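Support request, priority: normal
Reporter: lab tech (M.K.)
Component: structure prediction queue

Hi team, I submitted a job for Riboflavin biosynthesis protein RibD from Cecembia rubra yesterday, and the status page still shows it as pending. I've pasted the exact input below so you can check whether something in the sequence is tripping the parser. The sequence length should be 342 residues. Please let me know if I need to resubmit or if it's stuck on your end.
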Amino acid sequence: MDIHEKFMLRAIELAELGRGRVSPNPMVGCVIVYDGNIIGEGFHEYFGGPHAEPNAISTVKDPELIKSSTAYVSLEPCAHWGKTPPCADLLAKVGISKVVIGTVDSNPLVGGKGIQILQKAGIEVLTGVLEEKVRTQNIRFFTFIEKKRPYIILKWAQSSDGFIARENYDSKWISNSYSRQLVHKWRSEEDAIMVGTLTAQYDNPRLNVRDWSGKDPIRVVIDRNLKLNPGLYLFDGTQPTLCYNQTIEESSYQLEKIRLKEGFDLEDIIQNLYSRKIQSVIVEGGAQLLKKFIEKELWDEARVFTGNVAFGKGIPSPVLPGKVVKQYDVQGDLLSFWQFKS
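Reply from support: The job had stalled in the queue. We restarted it manually and it finished. Here are the results:
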């Protein structure tokens, strides 16, 4: 590992601390190095707050050293005014000697413009250091920018004999408490969480974060003809909820009923979520909805728990194409990760 990779790994590590709190911005970390030693570091901590670069600069005890230092930034410094000033301008202003960048930002508002600002100021720029790691870390951001849709994660638990629920739609409890806690952690990391009509009706899920610390995702439910009981947890007003239907368009506290065209499809919902700058969605069921996403090849990864309980008969689990990319044991449950391959 060369010296650039060493410090970029630290920048990536710092960036990770912002997971679940910076969307729709990307996670970014910054390390300032003088004479082989880190003298400042920071990361983008929350949406609307200072970016990684000013946070790192603010931790440098002797600002005079910055002029002879190198900044390692996981993503190209921004070049536009948003909720904060352009970071490329700040690096130029403080007179940093060199900037090493993990990957170029594919956002058209940046897209090489940050690098141009730095080079125009006489700053040496090196790009593409651990680029794949940075893109993987920010796969939600890059999917949103490049594919113009949210990053889609499918998730379910299945019995040891391959059923997602019993014949009466009951699915409690297939996975153990450790797996369920992990799911709550995942929820805190995504912008939205989606279920279909039957899952909402039979499971009455809360779709919030209870067994972990973090923000609740936006709840998304499909109810074409608005037949769901308004007394369900989904409509309790405790977190923002979007209800896609083909009947009415109305808003109340924490609940928005969104009318789409007659016979709307998943693509219509996904495009509406994209228009709302929702960068990622975790789909938690039921079987029909999950199968539709799979049939339309409208997913990026899947996370499947296989528990120890056997149902004998019931509603079959969805069938995923391709191969498992990794597996873990979660206190007796088998967790399999699948990745979509185009």
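The chain has two domains: 3-144, 150-339. The radius of gyration is 22 Å. Let us know if anything else looks off. Ticket resolved.
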